[in-house]
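PROTEIN DESIGN WORKSHEET
SECTION A - STRUCTURE
LENGTH: 537
TOKENS:
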């Protein structure tokens, strides 16, 4: 069953649930943008998803060949102007709000997550360069990264430096002309090498020339595959990972400095590399949450369609053979998949709409983005694994075979809780930086400012407020143990808030919201109890 981008649902969430308004974007314009993106996603990218899974990428002589059809799809994507959607018009971007860019991105990710990773990483590179690059670097690199003629990557990870970037060894040495020589090895670099574009612009976290140990000695460098005069830089892909999923997304080992050192240009200030990289990572973390929700949508659509076709067993009412969608347990799985997906969509678009407000100088909105970034990343991606697994369950045995594509969704989704900071790291970010650091002010402000909720949701809110207060006073050891259930409780609650808002916008959502409240929301209570236990013991 092909993926159909749910454009009506996207527009419902944007306009009716989130009250999105924009002087230049009326409903017809939004529908037109979504409709055009849906054509590319549904007709070009989605049919390539299984091809990419089956054929994967190939590495020969430092060159990576992506699966048949991907390069042409990328060309169509760029020609349609899709790469430029949210970026600064001063550098050729379309300047559209993130609130609209997110639904558009959702389609690339839902149709073909392996493909969607290239623009996702590029988006992070553009944001980091835009925020921290010199005027000269911005003028040289941003226009082409924005059209998609060139693509950007994010080079953090090294064999000994995954979650802990403070032990990065790749190093930079200052040259007389103000450039740097970069030497070292990076691993797991998404789209580090490929055949989509003529140039690839790597943003590399490396140890500064003064070599201070720890994360304070790291700087960010821009290292292009080809320098401005056309010279090939000293960076090469030496390996591709064979992995569980996202086979069409090349995961590269990158060697810098086999021939004396790759030429790099400092982005931002020396020793502030981590700060600059976080511009990129925060942006990417929300988008990874979006990927989770997008793949949940695709898995749910596939399971819903299959359950209507597959006849097995008889109806308990009529005694006649029925499609499996007629069985209570299958209905439970399908509705669980649907409500988790819908809740994830609402919370990720909500965060995106606050990115726009924050960019316009709204400091309260900025606090909400910061609070919700680890929640959207971890909750939506954990749910993606759950939803994709349920998708296989709905299919029965054929779901475990590769034939339907249900298994691919689970294999692809499984990376989501790992990259862009594992979900364990997200939960630590949530409790230490987003709760304990300001003594719970942002979380409590958000929870208390929600206005009236119905009684069950309100009950959980009260428990969550107590938990946030306890977290903000806990010692670090206990805080880290309670972090994961605390994040899960918060995410599950946020989902309930938006499911209720959807019902206020449309009565038709009543049943879904009631299901969420009755079946999913109790998970928040259980998680609060777990977190409280871990704080006390
Ligand atoms: C397909 C793929 C694509 C990737 N793309 C990129 C990319 O484009 N660029 C890039 O730079 N990197 C990329 N990565 C790397 C990815 O971001 C890391 O794998 C991830 O950050 C985890 O690091 P690690 O693998 O070293 O795991 P580790 O850091 O070794 O973690 C192992 C486990 O220990 C836990 N853990 C670690 N430290 C702590 C702690 N302090 N407290 C509690 N728990 C902890 C983790 O949560 C995890 O469960 C990619 C990885 C993969 C597999």
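SECTION B - SEQUENCE
RESIDUE ASSIGNMENT:
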């Amino acid at each position: 069953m092909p993926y159909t981008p749910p454009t009506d649902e996207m527009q419902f969430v944007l306009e009716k649930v989130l009250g999105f308004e924009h002087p230049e974007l009326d409903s017809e314009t939004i529908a037109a943008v979504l409709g055009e993106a849906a054509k590319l996603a549904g007709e070009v990218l989605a049919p390539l998803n299984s091809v990419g899974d089956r054929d994967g990428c190939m590495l020969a002589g430092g060159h990576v060949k992506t699966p048949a059809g991907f390069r042409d799809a990328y060309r169509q994507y760029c020609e349609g102007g899709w790469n430029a959607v949210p970026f600064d018009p001063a550098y050729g971007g379309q300047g559209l709000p993130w609130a609209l860019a997110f639904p558009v991105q959702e389609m690339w990710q839902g149709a073909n997550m392996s493909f969607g990773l290239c623009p996702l990483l590029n988006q992070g590179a553009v944001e980091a360069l835009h925020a921290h690059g010199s005027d000269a670097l911005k003028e040289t690199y941003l226009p082409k990264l924005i059209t998609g003629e060139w693509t950007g990557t994010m080079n953090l990870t090294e064999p000994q430096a995954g979650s802990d970037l403070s032990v990065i060894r790749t190093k930079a040495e200052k040259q007389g002309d103000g450039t740097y020589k970069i030497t070292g090895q990076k691993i797991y670099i998404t789209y580090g090498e490929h055949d989509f574009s003529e140039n690839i612009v790597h943003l590399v976290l490396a140890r500064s020339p003064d070599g201070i140990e720890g994360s304070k000695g790291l700087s960010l460098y821009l290292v292009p595959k080809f320098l401005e005069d056309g010279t090939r830089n000293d960076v090469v892909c030496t390996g591709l990972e064979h992995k569980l999923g996202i086979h069409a997304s090349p995961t590269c080992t990158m060697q810098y400095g086999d021939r004396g050192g790759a030429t790099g240009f400092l982005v931002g200030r020396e020793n502030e590399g981590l700060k600059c990289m976080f511009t990129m990572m925060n942006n990417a973390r929300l988008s990874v949450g979006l990927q989770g929700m997008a793949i949940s949508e695709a898995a749910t659509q596939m399971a819903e369609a299959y359950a209507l076709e597959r006849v097995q067993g008889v109806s308990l009412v009529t005694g006649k053979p029925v499609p499996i969608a007629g069985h209570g347990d299958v209905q439970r799985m399908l509705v669980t998949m649907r409500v988790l997906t819908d809740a994830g969509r609402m919370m990720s678009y909500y965060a995106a709409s606050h990115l726009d407000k924050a960019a316009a100088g709204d400091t309260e909105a900025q606090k909400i983005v910061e609070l919700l970034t680890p929640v959207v990343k971890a909750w939506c991606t954990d749910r993606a694994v759950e939803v994709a697994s349920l998708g296989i369950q709905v299919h029965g045995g054929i779901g475990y075979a590769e034939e339907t594509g249900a298994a691919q969704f689970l294999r692809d989704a499984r990376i989501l809780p790992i990259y862009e900071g594992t979900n364990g790291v997200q939960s630590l970010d949530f409790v230490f930086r987003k709760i304990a650091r300001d003594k719970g002010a942002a979380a409590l402000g958000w929870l208390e400012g929600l206005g009236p909720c119905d009684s069950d949701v309100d009950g959980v809110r009260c428990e969550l407020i107590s938990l946030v207060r306890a977290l903000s006073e806990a010692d670090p050891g206990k805080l880290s143990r309670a972090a994961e259930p605390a994040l899960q409780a918060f995410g599950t609650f946020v989902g309930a808030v938006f499911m209720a808002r959807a019902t206020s916008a449309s009565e038709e959502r009543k049943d879904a919201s009631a299901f969420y409240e009755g079946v999913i929301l109790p998970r928040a209570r259980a998680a609060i109890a777990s977190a409280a236990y871990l704080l006390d013991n």
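SECTION C - NOTES
The longest strand covers residues 180-190.
The pocket of flavin-adenine dinucleotide is lined by residues 121, 154-157, 162-163, 188-190, 243, 251, 415, 418-419, 421-422, 424-425, 428 (CB under 6 Å).
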